[in-house]
Write a structure and sequence with these properties.
- The protein contains five helices and no strands.
- The protein is mainly alpha-helical.
- Helix 4 crosses helix 5.
- The radius of gyration is 64 Å and the shape is rod-shaped.
C-alpha cells in the first residue's frame, strides 16, 4: 500500500460483501474517481473488488476525503452491526437443485445483482406475499360466507318460529270455537227438553180442564131437568 490509501486501510479487499457495500456507498455519495472515459459500474459481486481496489487508491489525504472516509467507516460499523444481528435470525439450509434450476437461479442473481441466497430469499418472500394475500382474502371470504350462513340460518329459524306461531293461533281459535259450539248445543238440547216437558204439562192440563168443563155442563143440564120435572109435578098437583 502506498501513502495515499492510509485512509482506507480498514477496507478488506478480500471481503466481497464489504467491497460491494463500499462501492454502493461511494456511488450514493457521488464520489466517482474513475478516469473520465470510464463510467462507474453498477454494484456487482464480480466487479466490486477491482472497483474498490482502484477507487480507494485514488483518494488523496484531504479534509474532504478524510470526512468522507470517516462517515463511510462509521456507516460500515452500523451496517456490520445490523448484519450481525440479522445473521442471528437466519438459519442455514442445505438442499439440492437441478442444473437447470441452478442455472436459472444464477441468471436471476446476475439480473438483480444479488447473491444466490439473497435472490432465493427474495423469490420466496415475493411468492409468500402472493400466497399470504390469497390466504388473507380466502380467510375474509370464509368469514363473509360464515356470517351470511349464520344470518340465513337465523332468518330461517325466525321464519319457522313465525310459522309455528301462525299455525298455533288458528288451531287455538278453532278449538275454542268448537268448545263454544258444544256448549251451545248442550244448552239447546237442554232448552228443547224443557220445552217438551212444558208442552206436555200444558196439554195434560188442557185435557183436565176440558173434562172438568164437560162434567160441569152435564151437571148443569141434569139440574135443569130436575127443576123442570119438579115444576111439572107441582102443576099436576094443583
Amino acid at each position: 500500500m502506498d501513502e495515499r490509501n492510509k485512509l482506507t486501510q480498514w477496507i478488506d479487499l478480500n471481503d466481497q460483501i464489504m467491497c460491494q457495500w463500499v462501492m454502493t456507498y461511494l456511488k450514493k455519495a457521488k464520489r466517482n474517481h474513475y478516469p473520465s472515459p470510464v463510467l462507474m459500474p453498477e454494484p456487482s459481486n464480480r466487479e466490486a473488488n477491482s472497483f474498490v481496489r482502484y477507487i480507494i487508491n485514488s483518494f488523496d489525504d484531504t479534509p474532504a476525503n478524510r470526512e468522507l472516509i470517516s462517515r463511510m467507516r462509521s456507516a460500515w460499523r452500523q451496517e456490520r452491526y445490523r448484519r450481525a444481528n440479522k445473521a442471528k435470525s437466519k438459519e442455514q439450509y442445505s438442499f439440492v437443485l437441478s442444473r437447470h434450476v441452478s442455472k436459472e437461479l444464477d441468471n436471476l442473481s446476475k439480473h438483480v445483482d444479488r447473491p444466490r441466497n439473497e435472490t432465493l430469499a427474495l423469490l420466496i418472500s415475493k411468492q409468500y406475499e402472493v400466497v399470504r394475500d390469497r390466504l388473507h382474502q380466502a380467510k375474509e371470504d370464509r368469514a363473509k360466507l360464515k356470517l351470511k350462513k349464520n344470518q340465513d340460518l337465523a332468518r330461517i329459524r325466525n321464519q319457522e318460529l313465525m310459522n309455528k306461531l301462525t299455525d298455533v293461533k288458528p288451531a287455538e281459535e278453532l278449538r275454542l270455537a268448537l268448545e263454544e259450539r258444544d256448549k251451545l248445543q248442550e244448552r239447546y238440547d237442554q232448552l228443547a227438553n224443557e220445552f217438551e216437558q212444558l208442552h206436555s204439562k200444558i196439554e195434560n192440563q188442557s185435557c183436565v180442564d176440558k173434562g172438568a168443563g164437560e162434567s160441569a155442563q152435564e151437571n148443569q143440564h141434569e139440574g135443569k131437568r130436575e127443576v123442570k120435572m119438579i115444576t111439572l109435578k107441582r102443576k099436576n098437583t094443583k
